[in-house]
Design goal:
The protein is mostly beta strands. It has strands at residues 8-11, 20-27, 32-35, 40-45, 55-60, 62-64, 68-72, 75-77, 79-88, 91-100. The strands form 3 sheets. The chain has a 6-stranded antiparallel sheet, with no helix packed on it. It has a two-stranded antiparallel sheet with strand order 4-5. Strand 1 (8-11) and strand 2 form a beta hairpin.
């Protein structure tokens, strides 16, 4: 998965198409993420110790990664990886960086 926590993304398909938000949680097994303010659902919750009143709660639900695009300088772009092999003190190390496909800039 090419997305990380706190990445800004744009929804490109589904009921919230066009909205943007920040990635809060990633489920790598199911290829789904939770985006802040996107795919809101209502959940009826019984009273408990943490929520003594109970009632209807609005919260974000999981959304599939294929419905999202990374925002680079407020424009949606794909993400690629750039792999470099660096040799330091006779030891080879591979450096893997995320790159925005549209501009070629390193993201992190």
């Amino acid at each position: 998965m090419k997305l990380k926590r706190n990445d800004n993304v744009k929804v490109i398909a589904g009921k919230d198409k066009g909205s943007t938000g920040r990635v809060l949680y990633i489920d790598r097994d199911k290829n789904r993420v939770v985006v802040e303010g996107v795919n809101m659902i209502t959940k009826h919750q019984k009273p408990s110790r943490t929520n003594q009143r109970g009632g209807i709660i609005h919260k974000e639900a999981l959304i599939h990664v294929s419905n999202l695009m990374y925002l680079h300088h407020n424009k949606p772009t794909r993400i690629a990886y750039k792999v470099e092999v660096i040799e330091r003190d006779g030891v080879k190390q591979t450096l893997r960086q995320r790159v925005a496909v549209s501009t070629g800039e390193v993201i992190d």
